[in-house]
Amino acid sequence: MRKAEHGSGKEIIYLATTSKALLRKIEKSLVKQLPERSHAAKCEKVLKSRFLAVTCKNLDQAAQVSNYIAPEHLELQIADKSIDALTNKITTAGAILQGYMTPTVLGDFTAGPSHTLPTGRAGRFFSGLQATDFIRRSSILRYDAKSLANAAPVVETFARLEKLDGHGRSLTIRL
Q1: Is 167 a catalytic residue?
Q2: What is the mean pLDDT of the chain?
């Protein structure tokens, strides 16, 4: 419900569970809580059109679903003994909130290292915003004649495959 409350219309809410009984309880709780929310209309719209619940066979499958979705925030509401193992299998979440006593709102308001997290499955290739993202970096390369000669066959092959003879020539002319 927390995510739906934003109400931009772009929110997508996913729920992966290994328990159909728990899913039914959650659905009933959402119906009960909805009228009590100050943004009930926005929440209802998101829950009706942008909410997907998936029942998984086991936690390994739940991790696969999570890695595919690459969620901005991921709450792990599982037994404490399983949290570390499941966390280690998740590679694409922007933020992982572990256990019942760690709701996403903590990451929103107080506990998170960054609330600027990848959305729209971008967690597959981006992390949350960090101070190092504001540091300008340059790659510095320096070859000597022997290194250049060793690289030549690879460069020439790529240049030929990509039909970029000028690229290849820019190396061979130096040799």
Answers
A1: no
A2: 87
Q: State the Cα–Cα distance between residues 23 and 52, nearest whole angstrom.
A: 11
Q: By C-alpha distance, which of 6, 12, 20 is closest to 119?
A: 12
Q: Which residue is catalytic, options 5, 6, 44, 72?
A: 72
Write out the residue limits of the CATH 3.40.50.1980 domain(s) in the chain: 4-129
Tokens (6 digits) for 89: 């299998």
Phi, psi of 23 (to 5 degrees): -60, -45
pLDDT for the residue 56:
97
Q: Which of 144, 140, 113 is nearest to 129 (CA)?
A: 113
CATH of 4-129, one of 3.40.50.1980, 3.40.630.30, 1.10.260.40, 3.40.50.10680: 3.40.50.1980
122 pLDDT tier (thresholds 50, 70, 90): confident
Prediction pTM value: 0.71
Give the model's pLDDT for residue 142.
86
Q: Tell how many helices (H) and how many strands (E) occur in the chain.
A: 7, 4
Instruction: Specify whether 39 is catalytic.
Output: no
Determine which one of 39, 73, 115, 156 is catalytic: 73
**Helix, strand, coil share (%) of the chain residues, nearest 5:** 50, 10, 40
